[in-house]
Amino acid sequence: MTTTPDQPTPRRGAVTNAVGRYERFTREREPDGWEQAPPERAEGAESEDLDDWDDLPPLRTTVQRDASRSILARNTSPDIPFDRSINPYRGCEHGCVYCFARPSHAYLGLSPGLDFESRLFEKPDAPALLEAELRRKSYRCAPIAIGTNTDPYQPIERERRIMRGVLEVLRDYNHPVTIVTKSALVARDIDILAPMAAKRLVRVAISVTTLDRGLQKVLEPRAATPGARLTAMKALVDAGIPTAVMVAPVIPALTDHELERILEQAALAGADAAGWIFLRLPLEIRDLFEEWLRTHRPDRAERVLSLIRQARDGVLYQSAWGKRMTGSGPIAEMIGARFRIAARRFGMEPRDLALDCTQFRPPPRAGDQLALL
Question: What is the CATH number of the domain that holds 164?
Answer without folding.
Answer: 3.80.30.30
